[in-house]
Amino acid sequence: QVQLVESGGGLVEPGGSLRLSCAASGSIFDISAMDWYRRAPGKQRELVATITTGGYTNYADSVKGRFTISRDNAKNTVYLQMDSLKPEDTAVYYCSARQGLYTHWGQGTQVTVSS
Asked: Mean of the pLDDT values across residues 13-25?
């Protein structure tokens, strides 16, 4: 089993920055990729960013140039650096880990962008 714990969410003004963290523990030896998703009120879940074990990264068009996904293998942690935040980035952000045919999920962390 894999456990994922997100942190770093909060309230920030438009144009501000936040860094989300996702700490993985448990049976993490064959995770192929980790993703950040978000779900805004009244909207469907959206894939925000991906990082694979090979270091490949991919981003949703809505966050390209503003968000950066990275990882620290020594700490088993994936980060999402979010800059130039907009009110439309307000959502619950979830970390997920792909392991074979299964996807593990964290509990989510709220990000609110408002003045």
From this structure: 97
